[in-house]
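REVIEWER CHECKLIST
Item 1: Sequence provided? yes
Item 2: Single chain? yes
Item 3: Sequence as submitted:
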Amino acid sequence: MPFELGGRADKQGNRFEVRWVLYQLLKVLEEENQYITFEALGDDEKGIDVWIGKKWDNRL
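Item 4: Structure as written out by the authors:
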């Protein structure tokens, strides 16, 4: 039996997405991530809701 639109699974998925984005924002404040872009425009927006820019460690 398929799930209904807007049902329990959809709400849990939305909660997970919000928590994941908040976690990534905290990583920006801790300077582990460099930036976050929400709903990019142009060619970057196809299929992607959130872009995360990771910082590179050049100590290797």
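Item 5: Key structural point noted by reviewer: The two ends are 52 Å apart (CA to CA).
Item 6: Recommendation: ____
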